[in-house]
# Entry
Amino acid sequence: MTEIGENYIFKTAPIPGTPEAMRIWVLGDFGRGNELQKMVKDAYVDYTGDRHTDVWLWLGDNAYQVGSDQEYQDIVFSGEWGYQDILRKWPFWTTPGNHDYLSVDGYYTNPESTAGPYFDIVHMPTEGEAGGVPSGTELYYSFDHGNVHFISLNSEVTWILFEESVMMDWLRQDLAATTADWVVAFFHEPPYSKGSHDSDDAFEAFMTGMRENFLPTLEAYGVDLVLAGHSHVYERSAQIKGHYGLSSTLTDNNFVDDCNDWTNKKEPYYKRVYADDSLKGTIYVVCGNGGSQDEGAPLDHPIMCSTDDGIGSIVMDVKGDTLISRYLNGVGEIVDEFAIVREMYPVGMEDYDLEVKEMGDLLLYPNPTSQILYLRYYLSKNSAVDMEIYDLSGRLIYTESYKEAEGKHFHYYDLNQLQLSKGIYMVDLKCNGVRQLRELIGVY
Ligand SMILES: [Fe+2]
# Structure
């Protein structure tokens, strides 16, 4: 990190493909020039402290009411509500919202136009300068940061109403070309929402267009996460697939994972890269409340696991095979969180539904791992359990003893908690005279 002047910080992005730990801040519908905008910003600044923000995503409707240059200057880049202090150190990447277009005449009739203050102000890569297939336009583009590929789509143009368009052609090429471990797409209009906008409403042609025309392609190429704003609420879905109609058409077959409880049970969504297509899905998150608030929406879309009609933003950490996303409200409380553990290496698929009958059957997952470790085993009777971890020199790194009842058991550990770093370890589990040794590979 190089300091180039007081409070001006520049940090070079990691080499594409490098699984370096990164912090992402996701902010939507923020430029209101009000106290709410400032609360959300202050909550994040306090939360992240000295932790550098590697990627700051703007989900559109960045400046209200009409996205004029004056509004951008007054409430985004300066003044009481602006981000001028943190813009000196954290780079942002953006996607346009409907309000960013409102000061531009005739955008519906000319989807290829980049006229107007939004496109004058932002400078997004058009030639693949930061990775990805060159889009040739700031209307939509992609970039890499570490082992994450980010795609910004323009949900405000008439292309999205059709199955085929130049944006779709580029999207297919871009998705086919990326070799990143993670793929995150972001655009303004949410394909699913029951917030201040309802994705079942016939009036919401652009939300419907994104869902019907773009989601099949995003899912077919294994996009992990879709982020959107526009609806002034927070909504986080289950891992789903193949649901492109109204919410009334949703079936059990659309669910890959149920609403996994990370907060209490440390259950992540598993991204099963090597599995059958029926076990692969995408998680959809709406966060359009970085300064805008509409209370009283039903928030009852059936794919959603967690919702909030307050204000807030998303703090996301990606490290190797693990993504942890936290929704931070306007007073600095984490009110929702989820994790995605991505299968980086092939493991036997039979392990997912292991019907263990014998004492033991210790499974470590993921392995190799960078941040999270699960131990799963079976006890055929009530047992005293000793769990120990050694490094290859035989040094005891971690030990734990406890009593457990008969049945299947899951234990979750964070590698930091176990004080494990990059290297090879042995996990040694003893229960009622049965001993099991497993090799564990830490990739950090
Ligand atoms: Fe919007």
Remarks:
- Confidence is low (pLDDT under 50) at residues 345-356.
- The two ends are 21 Å apart (CA to CA).
- Residues 61, 97-99, 188, 230 surround fe (ii) ion (CB under 6 Å).
